[in-house]
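can u do me a favor
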């Protein structure tokens, strides 16, 4: 799987559990949405969560998912587990075993982190990424992202129906929706707000806020070689990661918290819990 984008700071479709219950526009409105490409088609966050859950289930089936005892899973659980109910959300998370540098979150609360990202970021940097994700949740960016994914995947007409429920889509269409979700981007304003949320998340939870700058700087440094595609795509419609790193640095300076960030050791290996067997030394007979 090719790197899709910079996760919107690395996260492309975001989480939301608002209780809004606006239903899909029906009849002429749904047809009008098809004709215009977007205008009339609306759906609730509940609808977005249902579609996301199905699409992520499809993506899980087509990726190599790290098992519970895999070192990547153990590390993500240690880092992320304590924040799985942040802001009242109920999140589920897994690791995709791939060299790609990416991560994403969806409207049903699914968070997927690629092992390639975990290979280059230490715990604090990954927490900065998680904070960014939660920012998209708190700011309720989900519906816009899902609408963009449906539009890109030409699936607006498929999910529209003459009932008050979204229509069931086929397995292949779920795969199409998943790809469109990964390609979706938030606006510059949404990204900036999520960046600020990430900084606040780190500060409020007692983490090193300088890791926010470090994470952006690291991604900016990956703009060459095999990582160029996702950064080029991100920079074409979102704030430059160097500028985002600088913004985080200036906030840390303003708070009197700035210091040069030193990357901590990265360990994605499972720690052995095997109890060593003592070697029995036989006494020589006299």
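np, heres the sequence
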């Amino acid at each position: 799987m090719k790197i899709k984008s910079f996760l919107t700071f690395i996260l492309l479709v975001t989480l939301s559990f608002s209780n809004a219950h606006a239903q899909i526009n029906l009849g002429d409105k749904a047809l009008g949405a098809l004709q215009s490409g977007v205008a009339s088609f609306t759906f609730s966050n509940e609808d977005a969560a249902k579609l996301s859950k199905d699409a992520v289930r499809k993506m899980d089936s087509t990726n190599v998912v790290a098992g519970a005892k895999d070192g990547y899973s153990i590390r993500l659980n240690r880092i992320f587990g304590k924040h799985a109910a942040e802001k009242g959300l109920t999140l589920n998370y897994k690791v995709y075993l791939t060299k790609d540098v990416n991560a994403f979150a969806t409207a049903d609360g699914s968070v997927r982190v690629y092992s390639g990202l975990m290979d280059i970021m230490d715990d604090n940097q990954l927490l900065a990424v998680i904070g960014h994700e939660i920012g998209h949740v708190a700011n309720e960016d989900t519906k816009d992202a899902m609408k963009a994914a449906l539009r890109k995947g030409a699936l607006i007409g498929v999910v529209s129906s003459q009932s008050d429920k979204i229509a069931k889509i086929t397995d292949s269409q779920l795969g199409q929706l998943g790809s469109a979700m990964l390609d979706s981007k938030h606006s510059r304003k949404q990204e900036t707000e999520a960046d600020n949320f990430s900084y606040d998340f780190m500060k409020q939870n007692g983490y090193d806020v300088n890791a926010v700058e470090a994470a952006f700087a690291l991604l900016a440094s990956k703009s060459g070689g095999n990582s160029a595609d996702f950064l080029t795509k991100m920079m074409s419609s979102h704030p430059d990661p160097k500028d985002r790193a600088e913004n985080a640095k200036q906030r840390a300076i303003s708070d009197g918290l700035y210091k040069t960030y030193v990357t901590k050791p990265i360990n994605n290996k499972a720690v052995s819990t095997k109890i060593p067997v003592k070697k029995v030394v036989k006494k020589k007979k006299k």
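Residues 159 and 167 are 5 Å apart (CA to CA). hope that helps!!
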